Amino acid sequence: MAIEAHKCNVEGCTGHVVFENADFDMQKPYTIRGLYAYDNPSCNVCKKEFLVVPYYAVIDFNSETHESEILESAFMSEVKQHA
Predict the structure, then answer these.
(1) 20-26 long-range CB contacts below 8 Å, 24 or more apart?
(2) Residues 6+ apart with CB under 8 A from 18
(3) How many CB atoms lie under 10 A from the CB of residue 65?
């Protein structure tokens, strides 16, 4: 069992979005509100609903500051132009 907790991003809310991710079927996500999602947990304080979505990203992670930045996607045609 793996429990995840995320801070709610609603202004003034001090709640958390908490869910268990151990039973997610990574091969077959649901379609919730027209998006692929594994679950739709709610904030434990304001009750706003969120989506847990599949996400594939390349990040620049600074292990000293624990800050990260998602790299912008590029087209292969751009890569070939600079090779």
Answers:
(1) 21/52, 24/52, 26/54
(2) 3, 4, 5, 6, 41, 44
(3) 7
Residue with tokens 């751009």: 78
Per-residue pLDDT tens over the stretch 18-42: 999 888 888 889 999 888 899 999 9
- The Cα 52–Cα 32 span in angstroms is 10
Q: Which residues on adjacent β-strands are paired with residue 7?
A: 16
Q: State pLDDT tens for residues 54-75.
A: 876 666 878 899 888 777 777 8
